[in-house]
Amino acid sequence: MAEKSVFLLEIGTEEIPAGYIGPALDMMARQIEDFFRNNRIGFEKVETAGTPRRLVLVAHGVDMVQEPAVQEITGPPYSIAFTPDGKPTKAAEGFARGLGVSVDELQVKDTPKGKYLFFVKEEKGRSTKELLAEYLPDFVAHIPFPKSMRWGDQTVTFARPIHWIVALLGDEVVPFSYGDVVSGRHSKGHRFMKPDVISVPSDFDEYKKILRDHFVIVDRNERKEMIRSSVKALAESLGGIVVEDEDLLDEVTHLVEYPYPLVGKFEEKYLELPPEVPITVMKEHQRYFALTDARGKLMPYFITVANTVPRRPEVVAQGNERVVRARLEDARFYYEEDKKIPLEKRAEELKNVVFHSKLGTSWEKVERFRAVAKWLSDQLQFDESQNAKLMRAALLCKADLVTGMVSEFPELQGVMGRAYALHQGEDPDVAEAIYEHYLPAKAGDVVPSGIIGAVLSIADKIDTIVGCFGVGLIPTGTADPFALRRQTLAIIRILLEKELPISLVSLVRNTIPGLRKWITEPENTVIEGVIQFFKGRLEHYLQTHYGYPIDVIQAALSVEIDVLVNDVKRIAALSEFRKRSDFNALATTFKRVVNIIKEPVEIAVKPELFEDDAERELWKLIQDLRERFRTWEQERNYGRALEEFASLRPAVDRFFDAVLVMAKETEVRNNRLALLSTLKSLFENIADFKMIQTEV
């Protein structure tokens, strides 16, 4: 059994931004796993840890020596390599010379193509320590960060200056350097509380314990749960409940090495603000946790997490209180000033706000998506009251963009629009739609609860998507500056979760007229591009969220992508249908039909031309089934349609066994093709069965 050990890498730095740490650690794990696999180095598992001052990677059960490689190299045919009397030709000598061996070391092997010359090249396994030493400088250089920097007179880059590197394979140091930092076995404790130099052990659990003794909780999950539990306990001591925010918790986890929660207080007058305002100020600007009472009412307290255990906690808390008080006072000032100007007047100011240089002003955008919203309301048969609320919400929904509050705190767009709308006496449904038209604002966010907000959200987002495609602003690779992927997924989720029977193709087509003044691409190109973009996002969403097989999804969507709620019903039915024990045989039979009928046969079937009972039987079954099948399709009962479709298989098999489709007689041949074309028409609106993978 190969000797195994633990590989530990710690990169010690100045404080790395919180948002950089998680993605960097994830990529480090993937990169080292790829390195081990590509270099035939066995390992059991890889895990990561990290704080603002250190990125840590640990690989367990790493082979100390890579596996040897055996490569069989094929040369020329024996008949070319040797003369009839067995003497090597120039071909054999050249093959041997290229490998650095003699002709005598070559072997002859029988193959299906005859005898060939070959050579077995054996490569002994190298020391894993040597391979790591060669690889690690490049590994460190390719850890990805949004921004990297150089420091001093170094030419290398990293997120922040590197101060030390620990690289151990078992008890041995893996020697390499990055810039002027040479790897070793020494780390450091907490910068302020215990900055001692630490000799790092090879055991990961012991490593974490020693760092913990030096006020560094290096395990991210351990540190996160420490913060969660301590903040919760502190909140409960005040009779409060922490406002749950997993994103904030993750960020704070990556801001500290040794968390210590502190309570702060602010004046109750700030509770007169909409609750989202103090919560946003505390979260976005100070990384504080807000508290509510048991009834969900905001309390005048916050909890901050320090990176040290302060000697005088009350002094630190007072400093945090001064900072948040200044921000809340700014918010209070903007709130009072903003309320003096009605939203309708604010909306007029959008005429001077550029949405995009290629797509006009924000006011022009509002006018465009108001028209799309009206089209949507017609499709959904809104009544007069709903239409009035929708048009009013559409007019006002972007007005808060020019308020002082949103200018200072952009995260509050929509929130303030709702608050100001309620203040000036707008219908609550209108106010809620102003807020909800931004939803879902991020991955995992909720969709609008109300139908008016849902329609407005779709209209706003489809205008942006079609507009960007129309002027050539299409996402490429990871670049998506206008968040078109997120907005596309948002529309998909709203349509599915609200079960809205809206034609996607018609929605895109009815968005085009308002954009004709700006779009530079051909309209059909824009429409096709947008539909294909939606298709890609829908495929990914259905695979990851619903768990449907990708080949089933693609088989169904290749036939049609339009009314998404219906498309998903087809996919669900097809996915269930695929679980049948006889599915492979069914798919094979009907793929055969599809392969024969490349194009629809535009002639009527003539029963009098049938020559075999198998033809007559299949035609009768098709006739009996056709109307029922169409009814089930119209009722979206795709499961029933597929079950009936499956019942045809024995008759189809008998047909293929009994008759030759491509008969010599033209009239007979065309009649049989017309029969199969009619059969194909029954299922071609459900899926393209050629695309569904079957077991051999």
UniProtKB/TrEMBL annotation:
<dbReference type="GO" id="GO:0006420">
    <property type="term" value="P:arginyl-tRNA aminoacylation"/>
</dbReference>
<comment type="similarity">
    <text>Belongs to the class-II aminoacyl-tRNA synthetase family.</text>
</comment>
<keyword id="KW-0436">Ligase</keyword>
<dbReference type="InterPro" id="IPR015944">
    <property type="entry name" value="Gly-tRNA-synth_bsu"/>
</dbReference>
<comment type="subunit">
    <text>Tetramer of two alpha and two beta subunits.</text>
</comment>
<protein>
    <recommendedName>
        <fullName>Glycine--tRNA ligase beta subunit</fullName>
        <ecNumber>6.1.1.14</ecNumber>
    </recommendedName>
</protein>
<keyword id="KW-0030">Aminoacyl-tRNA synthetase</keyword>
<keyword id="KW-0648">Protein biosynthesis</keyword>
<dbReference type="InterPro" id="IPR008909">
    <property type="entry name" value="DALR_anticod-bd"/>
</dbReference>
<keyword id="KW-0547">Nucleotide-binding</keyword>
<dbReference type="GO" id="GO:0004820">
    <property type="term" value="F:glycine-tRNA ligase activity"/>
</dbReference>
<dbReference type="GO" id="GO:0005524">
    <property type="term" value="F:ATP binding"/>
</dbReference>
<keyword id="KW-0067">ATP-binding</keyword>
<dbReference type="Pfam" id="PF05746">
    <property type="entry name" value="DALR_1"/>
</dbReference>
<feature type="domain" description="DALR anticodon binding">
    <location>
        <begin position="591"/>
        <end position="686"/>
    </location>
</feature>
<dbReference type="InterPro" id="IPR006194">
    <property type="entry name" value="Gly-tRNA-synth_heterodimer"/>
</dbReference>
<dbReference type="GO" id="GO:0004814">
    <property type="term" value="F:arginine-tRNA ligase activity"/>
</dbReference>
<dbReference type="GO" id="GO:0005829">
    <property type="term" value="C:cytosol"/>
</dbReference>
<keyword id="KW-0963">Cytoplasm</keyword>
<dbReference type="GO" id="GO:0006426">
    <property type="term" value="P:glycyl-tRNA aminoacylation"/>
</dbReference>
<dbReference type="Pfam" id="PF02092">
    <property type="entry name" value="tRNA_synt_2f"/>
</dbReference>
